[in-house]
Amino acid sequence: MDSPADAAVTERRQRSERRSRGTTRAKPVLRVIPPRTHDAAIDPNDLKNPGLYINRELSWLEFNQRVLAQAFDSSHPLLERVKFLSIVGTNLDEFFMIRVATTLKKLREGIEDVAPDGYNTEQQLYAMRSRARKQIDDQAACWDELRRLLAAEKITIVEPDAWTPPMREYLAAYFTREISPVLTPLAFDPGHPFPLISNLSKNFAVVVRHGNRTKFARVKVPDVLPRFVQLPENIADRDGQTFVFLEDVIQANMQELFPGTQVKGAHLFRIIRDADLEIEQDEADDLLETVDRSLKQLRNGAISLLQVDAAMPARVLNILAENFEVGDDVIMRPAYRLGFGDWMQLTTLHRPELKYPPFSPKSLWRPDEDPEVLFDQLRYQDVLVHHPYESFGSVEAFLRAAVKDPHVIAIKMTLYRIGANSPLINLLIQAAEAGKQVAVLVELKARFDERNNIIWAKRLESHGIHVVYGFADLKTHAKQCMVVRQEADGIQRYVHTATGNYNPDTAKVYTDLGYFTADPDIVSDVSDVFNYLTGYSNRKEYRSMLVAPVQLRTRLCELINREAEHAKAGRPARMILKVNAVTDDQMIRVLYRASQAGVQTDMIVRGICSLRPGIPGVSDNITVRSIVGRFLEHSRIFWFHNGGHEEMYIGSADLM
């Protein structure tokens, strides 16, 4: 007897064959061949050999595996391990929304890319899915372990088969009172079109017997309600905190939504859509309007993953597959829970003994610091701050001082990921209302923050602030704030530039560097960058800064090659590069040549790394480490020994 999965596959194949009769055009068959095996001895002169490169998508999945390793690591407090598990789930969702979806799009459009590592589009898609499925299995295994440990700490999640009669009675009343009013059953039949299923949503495909006919409906599990429903202690009949899953409560009481019918089954499914925003440059006359329109189009993005419960019958699965227009390669039938990103809810429990000890960062200035004191200090001394060990309040104090100071006449700032309740927005508005010239670049294409940034941009504009949206073909990733002050001896400029976003929430958990300065060369460079962003500029050189896409790549290559020349001359040569990602194959070859020249290169790469260290004759002078822990490594630092005349740069750019 076939399993439901086998039966579904067979039935869909038969339907596909029936649909294809009468046409001579056959559907292409996906045949995946692994990249060729690379020789153990690689020719050091052939730096384009695929054996010298790690596939970027698989490298990202290995980074996420390192995050999952933190969830398995007993040295972390228990609820922090749950947080890591949740982050892994959210990361995997984004992987399918962006990376898998983009690769699928290439395949559909017939784009036959061959990556530096030798994978073509089909091979890469197959490898990505295979590795991701294994990681999802590992994630579920981790939850099994954490669940037992939580129960030992009196945080219990109860499955439906363990519900007692008092629990069922309480949850039935809870469903009627708190859940049912939020639910909207949607039938789908010839008179009711298949409803739009939103990205990342969990839904029930409901089979109903009505009027001697079998009919189908969809019930969405509302994301406005908590995924974990807590039971009162007297109902749970145990100490501690007891929870059940929201979807289990809905499924157990589904009949209430369909009175006068017979609910034959309710089967959970979840979809992930393509969420990669694409801007057509020739159509981007109004960037804000174009981004807004593109976001609306993403609601109907192509499906990159359909997850269904393992017990879903073949007929129901076929209906979903046909309406979503997906094949078996997009379908996953896990025998465990869906959407582990929701586990973040558990980390909000008040159990301080199961979390990291509170961390109090050092403050550079008081929130109400006297502007004269602050700007006088910066005029004569640069200040470097390291978040989260030093408070992001220093940035807020800097901007607040500029708002309060009557001598400040202008403020310019770039905003990329601002956060939901940023105090900086109100400070910029106060500055404009105080009569200061305020200009802000809001990057509308910051992935997953597009809608939020549109709202902020419109709010800033409504208060008379000059807002620009960046470029259709570039993302403005720089983090810069410039304050222009009228002083006794003329105009003086003060700058804050950073590796991290102007986001007070992420500044508590990301490691980043911020730099306050009045250095004439740097403030002049920042002025030129703002002119580039808000007006027109053909500047090709800057005094101190490395600016992409103008000359960052060129200057980095020059700095690396300079280190190679030191090595060839017999002088000590060393580089330390700390970045989030290394994927640019041209830059990787520059690093390989430096290694061949004898440059000792220590790389700290948090995420993707396509460079292969330790290959004899090619990269044996390169080491790569990845740091994953309590705080997310986010700063980018480039240090060069330069024959004893050391140089260091910080920034927000990766080698991508």
Q: What is the CATH superfamily label of the largest domain?
A: Polyphosphate kinase middle domain
Name the average pLDDT: 91
What portion of the residues fall into strands of 2 or more residues?
Answer: 15-25%
The major beta sheet can be summarized as: 8 strands, mixed
Domain count: the total is 3
**So what's the overall shape?**
globular
| Corresponding CATH architecture of the largest domain | 2-Layer Sandwich
- Which CATH class of the largest domain applies here? Alpha Beta
* Regions with little confidence, pLDDT below 50 for 5+ residues: 1-9, 15-38
Q: What level of helicity do the residues show?
A: 25-40%
Number of helices: 16
What Rg is obtained from the alpha carbons, in whole angstroms? 28 Å
What is the fold-level CATH name, i.e. the topology of the largest domain?
polyphosphate kinase like
- Please tally the β strands and state the result: 22
Distance from first to last alpha carbon: 51 Å
Content-based structural category: alpha/beta
Please explain how this structure is put together.
- It is built from 16 helices and 22 strands.
- Helix content is 36%, strand content 20%.
- Strands 10, 11, 12, 13, 14, 15, 16 and 20 form an eight-stranded mixed β-sheet that branches. It has a six-stranded mixed β-sheet with strand order 2-4-3-7-8-9. A five-stranded mixed β-sheet has the order 19-18-17-21-22.
- It has 656 residues and is α/β, with parallel strands linked by helices.
- It is globular, with a radius of gyration of 28 Å.
- Mean pLDDT is 91; it is low at 1-9 and 15-38.
- The protein has helices at residues 4-20, 56-72, 78-108, 121-152, 165-179, 233-236, 246-252, 287-297, 314-324, 371-380, 393-404, 423-433, 450-462, 520-534, 552-568, 585-597; strands at residues 155-157, 186-187, 202-210, 213-221, 228-231, 241-245, 262-273, 303-308, 331-332, 383-387, 408-415, 437-442, 466-468, 479-487, 490-498, 510-517, 574-579, 600-605, 622-625, 632-633, 636-640, 647-651.
- The chain folds into three domains: 48-298 and 341-354, polyphosphate kinase like; 371-534, Endonuclease Chain A (Endonuclease, Chain A), CATH 3.30.870; 552-651, Endonuclease, Chain A (2-Layer Sandwich), CATH 3.30.870.10.
